[in-house]
């Protein structure tokens, strides 16, 4: 009986773990990739490997974990970094499972486990989530940390108050160290931490809140690793944050402020109808209706409901107001909340019906799971990064074709980050000097070029590519970019 009980309790999350892990490993990019809007991958992989600093906001929590995965003795450097995204997404899906299952009878019933399993698959097999699980990006880890925050808020461990405050505050700080949009979850710190029957919206004690804020600052101190990285003069050193002004430029994301609130009210209204169609694409009609039922029909003022509503609302609004071509990725945590509502829309009606015979319950559950499994087969071609070789082919072509000792001026994030990966992370073609043409107007970048290539003459301030070429007349010059193909134009001295 004990073995049967153990299997019933642990088989669903184990099945979720194995199924998602298999799907992600089969569709994981084998090397550097541009699939699924993953053009930042070369920057993140290379910065983590060279002890450098990637584009704003620096992502210090991500860098630390990515470097740990890069020590794994499997595959290419890029592949090992992609594994962080896959592992983070699997763990986030398991948190979704637990959030739903524990909401109903503390996960003890078959209906609760089926509901949790449905929610976990709905999240893990949604196109946006799957697409980010198989490439190097920060959003998979972002969802994992948000899921962990939700779990600690709704089902805190049986610790004393001081240790709970330490956990909540420091975890919030580390989550913001991965992506600053986690600041939208700061109201969570004002929820009471203890496992009691306080109303969900009641505030914690003043001493508890103060401790959380202190531990929040401790978690945020991971950003202080960025100046330490900068002092080592790495070849990828965005912002060179060794002064307070440069540090603030980096961590505040000042470079991207032009994307915030750039829509007129009419344009924002025009984007609103895109949200239902986006959700339908992520979860299908059945998933959409189950989420509506779970959120509205079975609503109760519990911590899980109130916290997931907040997550869905703030990240959904942020994604709508962020004027970039890839703003959909900011829906990532909102997708997590939506998957929880799907699970609640499944679990509550199953829990209220006396299923006789029992196989009817399991048949209903497997039909639901089959729905999301079939959807997975339908979207795999949309998210599969295992056959994407464009970035690898581009980088190797550039390294092969540019002349010895060339100055290589590159435009576009895709092209720049791909060549950085081969040149800095893989240490290939040390004879050439790689120059990101669109960064030449930053003082910190000119300083980085001088540190990285001591023999290179770098005029300033704010030189054009031609100024740098004129200052180094004995070196071949190459201009590189990538649109739908490699564009490479070289001139000998």
Describe the protein.
- The chain has 493 residues and is mainly α.
- It has two domains: 2-260 and 352-383, no CATH class; 390-491, no CATH class.
- Helix content is 60%, strand content 4%.
- The protein is built from 20 helices and four strands.
- The chain has a four-stranded mixed β-sheet with strand order 2-1-3-4, covered by helices on one side.
- α18 links the parallel β1 and β2.
- α2 packs parallel to α18, α4 runs antiparallel to α5 (110-124) and α5 (110-124) packs parallel to α16.
- The radius of gyration is 24 Å and the shape is globular.
- The N and C termini lie far apart (82 Å).
Shape by Cα distribution? globular
Strand content: under 5%
Low-confidence stretches: none
Taking all Cα atoms into account, the compactness measure Rg is 24 Å
Mean pLDDT: 90
Comma- or semicolon-separated keywords:
mainly alpha, about 500 residues, 4-stranded mixed β-sheet, single chain, 2 domains
Short note summarizing the structure:
With 493 residues, the protein is mostly helical. It has 20 helices and four strands.
List the helices and strands and how they pair.
Blueprint: H1 2-27, H2 41-49, H3 60-70, H4 77-103, H5 110-124, H6 127-133, H7 139-154, H8 161-178, H9 206-220, H10 225-231, H11 244-251, H12 265-271, H13 274-297, H14 303-321, H15 332-352, H16 359-383, H17 390-401, E1 407-410, H18 413-425, E2 433-436, H19 443-452, H20 465-471, E3 477-482, E4 486-491
Helix pairs in contact: 1-4, 1-5, 2-3, 2-18, 3-4, 3-8, 4-5, 4-6, 4-7, 4-15, 5-15, 5-16, 6-16, 7-8, 8-9, 13-15, 14-15, 17-18
